[in-house]
Amino acid sequence: MTDRTIRNLDNLHRSASTARLLNLLRVASDHGHTRAWAEDPLFETAILNRAMIVKHRLRRDELDCFVGRRHVATKIILPIDTADLRAGGRFTFVNQLGFERIMKEGFGLTPDHPDVETLTIIDQLPSLDPFLLRERLRRSGIEPAPCYFAISESDLAQMSSFVEQEIHPLVSLSVGDIAIMPGSVQTLAAKILSGEPGENMEALRVTLRLSADDYQEGIFCWKGFLYYKWVLTSLATEIRDVSEEVANLRPRGRIEPGLMDYLARTRVQLRSRILRTTEEARLTIQVYDTAFAGLSVEGQSGAFRDFLIQAPSMFSRLGEQLGALQHIVSFWRYRFAPGRAPVGVGELIDILMDFEAGLLGYGESDSGHYVAA
């Protein structure tokens, strides 16, 4: 399909990858000159490896593109002219009706091609969160270069001070508060966030008694949990506010008694799920907090070593939960921003059902598809 009216495609390109967007055109622009990008691409097909992949909330006229019911799809956008994104782009949805034919005619890819497998995995994910995406692909034996999983520059800037506060106790334990050199906490934070600590953190690897491979994976997990903790901390107030607004927003127009009862029940269930999901995510992050406190406060490395080894098994569920919560907050703030048109009862029910589906749990959608958050 061709879409010359894709809103703000140029603005979309300027955005780094997020939980909603995987901007491979931006990745190619930033890292296309590197050996890692060339040798370990996400997609073997060059045009796909420069696409923009979006978790897209389906409009009413797009629902018939799929067998079964779903609210969010994975949209592949191929710019018509990468030098002038105002020209718009061609797009398709992963696993829409006729998807195999589109892949064959448009890209020469058969259903068993590795790129089709990768797209299917991405479509099954609840979000494009870089940590969740990396872990899912890795479990399927797909390991692209690290540049595909970078946190956006804006998020990284906001996160840096948070990480510095988190790891200060570890630096203090190592050298003592008085002996902490200016910039030492910032330096360690930068090494953790880089994902490539190398020899500069060899002492910590030795302390944790980890092999080089396990240590590299462990550092990624540490970075991941710091990222998730930051996300949850950043969302905490908004989650609470949105859950209250969900419970109280009244749609415009007359509401049939049956729909009023259904809407009331859905509100209560959704608010409960939002709060329960938030608490479950908090408890998972508390596992990290306890293990890190053992290392940074008590000087006991065993619990933190065990945590780093076990952390990948906790990634998926935590990523699903936070992806769903991020979607709820961001979409609610977008739809009900000042000046937006009042919501009708039908649209409100659709929105609440979409939110609830995203919180049901991985693979529990009523369509047989994974519902994206």
The rounded Rg comes to 22 Å
Which word captures the global form?
globular
Number of discrete domains: 2
**Number of DSSP-assigned strands:** 5
Fraction of residues in H or I helices: 55-70%
Determine the N-to-C terminus distance.
24 Å
Round the mean pLDDT to the nearest integer and report it: 79
How would you describe the overall organization of this protein?
- By secondary structure, the protein is α+β, with helices and mostly antiparallel strands.
- It folds into 2 domains: 2-149, no CATH class; 153-359, no CATH class.
- The protein contains 14 helices and 5 strands.
- The chain has a 5-stranded antiparallel beta sheet with strand order 1-5-4-3-2.
- Helix 7 crosses helix 8 (184-194) and helix 11 runs parallel beside helix 14 (345-359).
- The model is unreliable at 1-7, 175-182 and 362-373 (pLDDT under 50).
Summarize the structure.
By secondary structure, the chain is of the alpha+beta class. It has helices at residues 9-14, 24-31, 35-39, 99-107, 114-124, 130-139, 153-175, 184-194, 202-208, 212-248, 257-296, 302-310, 312-335, 345-359; strands at 2-3, 21-23, 52-57, 72-79, 89-93. The two termini are 24 Å apart.
Topology:
Blueprint: E1 2-3, H1 9-14, E2 21-23, H2 24-31, H3 35-39, E3 52-57, E4 72-79, E5 89-93, H4 99-107, H5 114-124, H6 130-139, H7 153-175, H8 184-194, H9 202-208, H10 212-248, H11 257-296, H12 302-310, H13 312-335, H14 345-359
Antiparallel strand pairs: 1-5, 2-3, 3-4, 4-5
Helix pairs in contact: 6-13, 7-8, 10-11, 10-13, 11-12, 11-13, 11-14
